[in-house]
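Example 3.2
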Amino acid sequence: MLKLWWHRVTHWEYWPSYLIYLPTFFIWIWWMMRFKSTKFYRHANPGIKNGGLYGDSKMSIYHILPESTFPKTILITKAEENQIIEKFNLAELTFPVIVKPDLGQRGIGVQMVNNIDELLSYAYSTSQDFLIQELITYPHEIGLFYCRLPNENNGKITGITVKQFLSVTGNGKETIEQLLNKKPRFQFQLPKLSSSIDLTEILLENEERCLVPFGNHSRGTQFMDGKSLITEKLETTFNRILNKIDGFYYGRLDIRYTNFEDLTLGKNYSIIELNGVKSEPTHIYDPKKSFFEAQKEIYRHQQILKKIVAINLKLAN
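Structure, written as tokens:
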């Protein structure tokens, strides 16, 4: 445990978000005075509640996305707990599915459920509305950060995060738990995995097993900087897709896809989530990046945010 504690302390990607974004807090205090508003951020994405900083329903955001670009998803409110099976069947969903809070962030509360008992257990244990979403089996996932100035027709992809899911490869001798214990990143996940996976199972030699099929840093996924993947052709494709969303100028899309060539052409992909102002340029969590490099990248995106707010305020007056 001491070794894990020291690993967390010496690797800033595991630090609490309030420490990572402390410099941004002081920047925002200055901007509140400059814009003469404590809610200036709303003008970054007028088409999303609170600009996407807080209180924005994931389901409402899916509704503003172009049809067929996101997974089949249904909203279950607390008042509808007794209708879960009926709504599930009506939507023609099949197990396994992903469940997650309608209001949430940083992957908290996201789970894969395999049957109706697990679904009902999740429903009765959560205190808020949640989504049931089809499991997208495309093998790859990225986080794509997109920004567009309101007075310009086209935007820019300002960062790409390549996500490596929590997976282990067997050697025919060691248990899954023993394999996980070889990497601190995976060790952190043992308490969460113990209730859903048989950690005593021994995988065959060279057998690869993905243990967490969604790309959340808090669930063991490694984030890597994919800036080399940004091309003019990819930007053209996503300008075509995102320009259809009224009032969206700043945020990150989490996207599952088959291969990068198809994604560049706008084929065989699914937008798992779109986040607004609360979006992080998650490529900063690449283990190769220093804390100061990350701060520089956060600041770069905050400057873009400020420009978008200023232009939208000017256009509104």
